[in-house]
Write a structure and sequence with these properties.
Shape: globular
Order of helices and strands: HHHHHHHHH
CATH class: Mainly Alpha
Strand content: under 5%
Distance between the termini: 23 Å
Number of helices: 9
Number of strands: 0
Radius of gyration: 20 Å
Largest sheet: none
Helix content: over 70%
CATH superfamily: MFS general substrate transporter like domains
Number of domains: 1
Amino acid sequence: RRAIGAQMLAMALAPTIAWPVTTFCEAALGWRGTFVLYGAVMLLVCAPLHFFALPRREPPKRNPRVPNSNRSASPAAVRRQWRVVALITAAVALNGFVTWGFQLVVIDLFRSFAVPGYLAVGFGSAIGFIQLSARLFDFLGGNRWDGLTTGLVAAAIMPPALLALALGEGAEWSIILFLVLYGLSSGAMSVSRATMPLVFFSSAEYGAVVARLGLPLNLAFAAAPPFFSFLLGEAGNRWTLAFALLCSLGALASMALLSRMRPAKPG
């Protein structure tokens, strides 16, 4: 869990660095030149790192048909495992639909409240630092709390963030409060998304469970930005925030149900 948390720390600064760099590159090279530049980075930097730098390991053998590799599990236990996987998927997908959806349209969202362009970019870039703070706090917490607790707190923070921006109608105080709460929630949930399965499943089962979560989560994350971009353009910021609030409440309800299914500690 600590290794995953450490990796998340480095990822938190991605939007903070990438958005200003992308804005600069677009002005200097145009959007086509920026795409070519980023594609070259993928081919010349990221691909060689994946092929040559990462160590090779044989995957552990497990039963691919169920999330738990223990074939002797009772039908009731298997049903419970599938309920857990379904709730984790719902909680993370609904929260991720908002975080990933807003992550790429938040600048346009701020502009819809008549925020100047340069301030909208600055406000959006600040999210990365707040996400880093949330991930750092979780990382420094070590084993004092688990991924489920982190996810429950993160899910509870998101609705107030959206309400603050909606009720404040883009006022400076509402944007700042939204950024703080939204950044804390999305940063903490990204750690919880990677570590929450360890609360319910063993380390040997972790890979199979995460693989089963991958498809629905990736579909939700891919659909979120164009959906929110369309909703913001066609229906306005009020409906956009209202739909995001509905998703965040669904994520909170799923996390609350998961907390009631937490395995009892031995002894």
